[in-house]
Structures are given as C-alpha cells and as structure tokens.
Amino acid sequence: MVELTDGGPAAHHAYPCEQCGANVEFSAGTGTLTCPYCGHTQQVTAVVREVREHDFAALASRTRTAAPATQDYRCGTCGAVTTSDHLSQKCGFCGSPMVAEVEGLGLVEPEAVLPFEVDREAMQGALRTWVRSRWFAPSALKKVVSAEQAHGVYLPHWTFDARTRSDYVGQRGEHYWVTETYTTTDSEGRSQTQTRQVQKTRWYPAAGTVARDFDDVLVAGTGRVMPEHLAKLSPWPLQQARAYQPDYLAGYETLRYDVEPETGLEVAKREMAPVIENDCEHDIGGDVQRVHQVHTSYAAVTYKLLLLPVWIATYLYGGKPFQVLVNARTAEVVGQRPWSAWKIALAVLAGLLVAAAIVWAVVANGDGGTAGALAEAAVRWGEPVVRESVGAPT
Fold first, then answer.
1. Angle at 282 between CA 279 and CA 288, to 5 degrees
2. Is the pTM of this model over 0.90?
3. DSSP string of 364-392?
4. Distance CA 95, CA 176 (A)
5. Nearest of 53, 33, 19 to residue 304 by alpha carbon
6. Which stretches of the chain are DSSP H helices?
7. What pairing do the DSSP bridges indicate for beta strands 253-255 and 86-90?
8. SS3 (DSSP) at 319
9. Concatenated DSSP letters for 242-273?
C-alpha cells in the first residue's frame, strides 16, 4: 500500500512492501511494484482517467507562484531528511524510494508518464552493442557497461498541439531550356563551334495560405542533458503514455523542469517553422520555389507535461566526463565517446604499410605484372581479390 508522509512541502509518497516491510520499486517491463528483497509484487495504483491536453491560454492568464528551489524529504524508513530539487529519488542513507507530492509546490503538475520498459539487464546489453560499434574508442569505454555506472531518470518534456494558419509570399520558378553556342579548341589548336542545352528558370510571384494541425510537438523541459542527445533518442512511443501516477517513479530519479512552458512553446514554434515552410513550397508548386515571408497564427494551443524514461551513464576518461543515454522504451543509445590516439595511429600506420606493399609489388613486377602483383599484395594483407577479365567468362 502506498503511503503519504505528513508535512506540507515535505510531503511525499513512500512505498512499504506489504509482505516484508521493506520498500518496493517500480519494475521496468512488468508494470508492477516489486520488492528487491522478498520479491513480492504489488499492482500500481489504478488511475481512472485518460491523458489530457491543457489549454495554454488558461495557463498564460493565471499567476503562478514561484516554486521553491528545493524540497525536503523525510524518509519514512530511517527518518533521515534529504534536501533535493528532484521530484523523486532514493534516500541517500537507506535507499528507500521517495516521490514528492507535486501539488502545492507551485509547479505545473505532470499529466502523463511513459513508464520504464527497458530494465537494467536489457540496458546493459544495448550499451555492449553500442560500445562494440565504436571504432577507435579507448578500451576504458567498456566501463560504461557496468551496472553501477547507470541510473534510471525520468526527464521532463513538454508537448504542444496547435492549429496553424500561415500566409506566405514567395516565388515560383519554372524551368525551360535554351540552345547555347560556344567555341572550343582541339588538341591541334583549331577552333570548333558547338551547341549545348542550358537550363534556365523563369520566376513568377506567388502568395497564398496554408494550414496545418500539429500534435504532440516534443520539447525538452530540462537543460541538464544535452539537447542534441535528447533529440537523437526520438522517436518516442508517445501514444503509450499513461496518466501520471507517482507509483511509476518509485525507485527512479525524476528531474524537475527548468524550461518554463512559455519558453517551451517558442521552441515548439521553431520546430513547426520548417514544416510550415515546406507546406508553403508545396503550395507554390512549379519546379523550384522561394519563400520570402511567412506569417503564422496559432489557435487552440494546448500543452501537457510528460515524463520520459532514460538510463544515464557517465564515465571519466582523461579527466573529462562523458555521458551516454539509453532510451528506456526503445533501447536506442546516444552518447559521447572519446577517441583513442594510439588506435588511430595504428590504423594509419597499417594503411601506410598496405599502400607501401602495393607500390612495391607494382615496381617489382613491372607494368606487365601489375594485376598479379596487386592481387598478391592484397592477399598478403588479407584483403579480398577482385579480378576483371576480357573475353569469354571462365
């Protein structure tokens, strides 16, 4: 049974095991709360509502109080007090899972969560595959696979829906061909007149209006993880998101959003812009298009705060931290990697030796024996041999 601790801002959910009294955690892939000690499983508390979109205009019109920078957790197991800016984490003293009661913190409350599906074992398998594919990486990269190096984190994201109408001004280009005469000089210095077909383009003014409905434009709600890495973890199966339930967070870290929804909407509009411009080009038609101006109006703008699951592994190499992310729904791996100078040097040296061997074979055998020498050199260096023959096939 999930319990709620007492105390205003310090209130949080605790998860005692119904069988042994230890603490249960959400188990990736099973959809249950599992005790790591006795193995007892408990069902996630049912939420009888669907994931909803919220009116952005209503959010923008009301005054939101500033959320405290941190909140205090008082562990229901050992009594220790932990100050944190996370929405969920484990007690730093006894490891018990704690999930903040979001209501009353002055934050936009999460609407949906995509629960962890890839467990630790599957995550390690994905990391092993990724590490093996990193050519010229130092051997130390293998340490990232270690179970102790990775932790599960829910990262906040905003999604935005909007109905757009865009007025544009541009040009439509239509190709045509003309015959062009030009003069060349042959090898004996004589001038020759020749013709060729040259493509030209006629440009015509164009203007019009396009409309498009956008659904679930995803914007990262945190700046703590490199945005380019988060973008590469897409696509996410957002249609599988479930209504927010604190139980899903038990045993994992959950970051607060530090990108406000107003800022997130501006980022979403920048994501929409190239799609709208492409619609304008399609509407212009012709062979080529130029779009000079686009004015877009946005209606029926809605939003929601969504928590997405990621395994994060960080390791040090050469005194510099490197970060690797694993999508905890699809097992997609994205991350930074160092380069091994000595492995690169060996590869360059091997390439030079192969080139030197081929040159030596050509010189030693003369022009008449070039093909055989190349084949011999290739075989000597373990390369596949390809021969071309003229005449009847053999």
1. 130
2. no
3. HHTGGGHHHHHHHHHHHTTPPP-----SS
4. 73
5. 53
6. 56-61, 120-132, 227-232, 261-284, 341-365, 370-380
7. antiparallel
8. coil
9. EE--GGGGTTSEEEPP-S-HHHHHHHHHHHHH
Q: Which residue has 């003014």 as its token pair?
A: 205
CA proximity to 225, closest of 133, 147, 160, 321: 321
CA–CA distances in Å: residue 320 to residues 136, 148, 314, 323, 337: 17, 19, 10, 10, 11
Token duo for residue 336: 């930074």
Q: Round to whole Å and give the CA distance between 167 and 150.
A: 48
With contact defined as beta carbons under 8 Å apart, do 313 and 133 qualify? Answer: no
The candidate with the shortest Cα–Cα distance to 137, out of 345, 343, 346, 349, is: 343
DSSP letter, residue 332: -
- The 10s digit of each residue's pLDDT in 210-253 is 999 999 999 999 998 888 888 899 999 999 999 999 999 999 99
4-31 tens-digit pLDDT: 444 444 456 778 888 888 889 999 988 8
Tokens describing residue 322: 């490197």
Query: CA-based diameter of the chain, in Å?
Result: 100
